[in-house]
Inverse folding.
DNA sequence: TAAAGACGTGAATATACGTTCATGAATATC
DNA sequence: GATATTCATGAACGTATATTCACGTCTTTA
């Protein structure tokens, strides 16, 4: 009997799907085009996956698993929050350099891709949310980080900035948007470095105000 | 002769298109469905617009114009940066409460919607980029804001946070993502307020370091 | 009031795409 | 080497939808 598709070939198919879906979303990608890209026939797609949506979910799972692996590898050790953030940033940057389509695909599901897809993504987001919140809460306890803000919101803003940096490196629109701000030859390295400086201040109150004003409200001015 | 569509009707059509395109992107929306929503026949759509893409661009233009108007109304007066930011935040929040689809549509074109659509969006983004950068540079000159970072990047991070807040209020995925962090009953007001605190610190270095270290690099730790 | 012109209508058309299935090639078994 | 079995192939089918156009209706004009 003819051999089944090798595992590498199956991964190749998933990658082709991810690339296709990442470009214009679920509807824009066509099964025939995906098959052509992967160097197989449409029939094979339907032998391995029930239909387009099923295949889409498989692509998504594959992509999110990779993302989750990165996140897991950068578990917080005993270290300063900003050291952790710097490590995270570097890993994410490496990841999006190697697999830009994965980031683009993630971005796609943020505005399309049915309830099932959304739930998958929310699993990863949820894990990140818990992780970041915990790390930040610890840093607060250690007196490293301001205590006048809820750690959950600090984590939220932190993740927002991380996400936008990812998108700005991988997604077409956000890339040129960054160029609008920073000029054509955007040095991602430098942007990441500056983001750390930005975060450092954001996580800190002026030193004489840490520990002193657990409910700071609006104090004077900048 | 039968009267042409009133101007209100034409706006209604645009709004129907915006709502439809905002939901699942260009491909997911169907002309027939849009016509039904607007209470007209498909024929009319093709009398007023050459084709689907032309209509899409018209929707986009209409939507972006509204956004640009808001941005224009909140021009920076002589005031502290954070006062400006607070005003901007409030106006944007009002806008996205009234026209959530406009925000969602904007979000859509960040990952689909051809080169022409992208150029339209970049016009608005470019205007915002220039505006924010200038306001921040002024604040730096006035000694309100740290000088160890490029105003363009400060503006970039600032806009990133604003955008994410908008999305978190208007777009389905981002709404539930915020809920992951902040719990179900997300009080947008409070998130916005806390964002201001976050920004306040981010824009500031510890006071004794303002003006003293124009190239601060990584100083100690949080 | 009648004829002409302007305009909206929605069934009909063409096309693109998801999905299926009859076919044939490759491998295993004897 | 013959047969059976497994699997990929890609043309064919059905459906969805962008687009068109012959028609009907309403308004103007004389």
């Amino acid at each position: 009997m003819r051999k089944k598709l090798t595992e590498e070939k199956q991964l190749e198919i998933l990658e082709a799907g991810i690339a296709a879906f990442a470009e214009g979303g679920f509807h824009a990608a066509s099964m025939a085009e995906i098959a052509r890209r992967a160097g197989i026939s449409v029939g094979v797609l339907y032998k391995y996956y029930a239909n387009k949506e099923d295949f889409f979910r498989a692509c998504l799972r594959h992509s999110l698993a990779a993302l989750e692996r990165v996140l897991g590898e950068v578990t917080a050790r005993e270290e300063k929050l900003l050291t952790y953030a710097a490590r995270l940033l570097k890993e994410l940057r490496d990841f999006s350099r190697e697999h830009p389509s994965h980031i683009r695909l993630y971005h796609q599901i943020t505005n399309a891709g049915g309830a099932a897809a959304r739930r998958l993504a929310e699993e990863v987001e949820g894990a990140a949310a818990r992780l970041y919140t915990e790390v930040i809460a610890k840093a607060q306890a250690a007196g490293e980080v301001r205590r006048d803000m809820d750690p959950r919101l600090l984590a939220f803003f932190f993740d927002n900035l991380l996400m936008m940096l990812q998108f700005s490196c991988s997604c077409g629109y956000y890339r040129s948007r960054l160029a609008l701000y920073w000029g054509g030859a955007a040095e991602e390295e430098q942007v990441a470095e500056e983001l750390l400086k930005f975060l450092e201040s954001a996580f800190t109150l002026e030193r004489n105000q840490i520990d002193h004003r657990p409910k700071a409200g609006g104090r004077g001015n900048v």
Chain A is about 70% helix and 0% strand. The domain at 60-206 of chain A is CATH 1.10.357.10 (Tetracycline Repressor; domain 2). Residues 208-222 of chain A have pLDDT under 50 and may be disordered.
